[in-house]
Amino acid sequence: MGLASPTAPKADSFRERDALVTACAYGAGTLAAVAAVAIGVALIAYGWNEVGWVLSTPGPQGSLRALGTTALIVVIALPITFVAGIFAGGSANNPNIGGIASKMLRESIEWSSGTPPVVVGVAVFFCAIALHTQSALLTATFALVVLNVPNATSRLALAFGAVPRQAREAAAALGASSAATFFGLVLPLSVWAVAAALFAVAAQMIGETTAIAIAISTSNGPQPLSVQIWHFASNRSLAGAEAAACVVLVMVIAVFLALSRACLRRGVEAVSLPP
Amino acid sequence: MSEGRGPAVETKLEASALHVWLGERHALRGASISVIARKTVAFIGASGSGKTTLLRSFNRLHDLDPRVRMHGSVKLDGAEILGRGVDVLGLRRRVGMIFTRPTILATSVFDNVAFGLRAKGLRDRIVLEERCERALRRALLWDIVSPTLDRPAVELAADLLQRLCLARVLALDPEVLLFDDPTATLDPVAGLALEEVILPLRRDHTVLIATNNLEQAARLSDTTCYLANGEVVESGETPLIFSRPADTRTEDFLAGRPSG
Q: Which value does ipTM take for this structure?
């Protein structure tokens, strides 16, 4: 009788698990999944019949037009946010910016990323009043930029920071300037992580409601989808349309987040240098 | 290390009373050393003795770490390179460095070798190709990589990566080459192969090599410098240092004895 060949053990089977934490993690994950499914089912059940209506109805209640407004705002706000974010994120990792300037930059990123959207909205609202701005698009764009620059900066600083220090040193040792190192090495290496940040920030911009709603509260003009959904909420007879618009919004955001995740996975591969 | 007699010698690099602090750690304590042009100097010493810190002072790579403070003097061809107003980027092109771990940029083989030239502002494709080919030939890599210049450099075999890093530096025609324990991550055969590449370079370049491999120091260098606790304990002609060291600390280190 020959010896039976052993079956390969499961990965990690040798490792002791913390039973309580593992059980809690599974429980929390299950709860989150159930809640997500329940919300999705409720939205679809309540608003499915209205999806066609909100997409085909002309403005101001039509979601397609509101989505167009959202896209327009995001298309204007995203490049501004990213240029500011790339500058600040790149500077956060620049050893030539030393002393208090570097410390202040990092601190300001941390602190400003925690600013509540309602505060940003009110600040932009007052700016709009002071500048006599009537354009809802302009005000909404400004609110999105102010709100998302810290977020974009911290994401980009993480992306740039993932480029190995040895690679930066190798570039510097070849006589590359900070700019040449950044544009010739850091940016190409982190391009997928930057793309991931771009999609994630875009998703956040698309879903942002509070800051824009407050900032454009006195303006008459087209509204982005998230703000329109908020306004639907003031009329019970539009509950179905509200749910339908939410379904549209969630689907659009899900697409952007999926793109972000896909880019992030590529980004991790791109910055992995040989051992 | 300059000889007192014989033909006039040209001092290439000179460090005087050089102190370096890495954060709170006093890593280099008043190191003084002069290196003659087109000679090879090996720096030996225990880990943490200051070999790498000294090498990184010669191309001001410490500038990249805001925690590092330096005091003293370092001269290249008689000109002070520490302090403000020095063309640091130009200095690093003149004083090239090869690190312990091969740091490959995640681009093609050609782009790796051309990186420094492009950073210098060279854009002419023909000139770039000529310079890259010459550098790859000097690193004994051309015959191996010439058919795959556009392939990602990370696909090269591990033992070739360090030679690619060397080619990247050689493309800039540096006057001084700093090797920071370049064979530490290579197997013995690949390490010896890299030494074969380094040997002919000694004719045209001033070579400084920090190494934990005493045999390598003996094989490659004209002069050996022993460092301990951030101080230059002893330096002199390599055969002399290895056969009759003047300082008992050097003797203990070479014999593998803990220094009293």
A: 0.89
